[in-house]
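Need tokens for this chain, all 157 residues.
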Amino acid sequence: MTAVHELMSRRPVTVSPTTSVAELLSLFGRHGYNALPVVEPEGRLVGVVSKLDLLRPFVMGRPRPSSVEEVSAIAADIMQRKVVSVEAQESIIDAGRLMLVTSLRSLPVIHRRSRSARPELVGMVSRGDLLRGLGFPVKGGAHRSPTRARAYGKSHR
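Here are the structure tokens for all 157 residues:
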């Protein structure tokens, strides 16, 4: 069976834990993704920040900010820390089952150097990638743009 690493986008757009809300808004606008993986400089996956997470300070904040400049939050403040991910060597069937159970549009693909090692982000895999791997023609995806990140999906805390 095909492994996830054979279909994933190998260089997804990522952000650091210190990325500002203003920069997150810019990245979401520029790339059109629904979420981005948050990684430390050495590549360790520490979270995912979604548009829903970004919306939270503007609708739940007290006092409610009237502009982006009023939001002092950074990615680490609003990101989801419990990340649903898939190992690079797992099968696309397992990844598909995980997407079905969680309703996620895509998954961060990780690699651990050992069982106790922290997860390193090595790519992203989307629903479209999996469908193409199963032999169904779907436009877009990793085969057309290796640097394209995928929308992570809705928040799961």
